[in-house]
Amino acid sequence: MALSLFLHVLGVVVWVGGMFFAYMALRPVAASVLEPPLRLTLWAGVFGKFFPWVWASVALILLTGLHMLVKVGGMAASHYAMAMLVLGVVMMLIFAHVFFAPYTKLKRAVGEQNWKAGGAALAQIRMLIGINLSLGLLTIAVVFLGRGLV
Fold it and tell me: How far apart are CA 105 and CA 113, in angstroms?
């Protein structure tokens, strides 16, 4: 269980921490100092480096989470464990949508130097990452505050 918990938390730190950094630090600076062509090119490159880590984190979080859930009683697990599972799966689905839809559009737009389409794709990614970051922080709160409620 200790190894599963460590790997689970490691995946969460990489994913949620990366979203927090990108959304709260990189995004406002990039928006204030870079013109759209450079900003969109930067984001396409950043996501190209970050998203493989997110895929690895998603797999790690899902596998270790299910392993720990089975070890503590499966569906008889606590309500907060079930809440974590539901929130995590919603986050994973949102990420998959980001990766296969707006991120694909962003890469194509940058390659074609279509800055208007790239801006629209980036705006959609920004909104969805904001939602996922909020869900990730909520999930972390459920982990620590939920234990005190049961």
Answer: 12
CB-CB contact of 136 with 143 (8 Å): no
What tens digit of pLDDT does each residue of 9-68 get? 999 999 999 999 999 999 999 999 999 999 999 999 999 999 999 999 999 999 999 999
What residue spans define the domains of the chain? 2-149
Residue 64 carries which side chain, given as an amino acid letter? T
- How many angstroms separate the CA atoms of 70 and 28, rounded? 42
pTM of the predicted model as reported, rounded to 2 decimal places: 0.94
Tokens of 139: 């999930």
Exposed e or buried b per residue across 59-75, where buried means at least 16 C-beta atoms within 10 angstroms of its C-beta? ebbbebbebbbeeeeee
Phi/psi for 88 (5° steps) reads: -60, -45
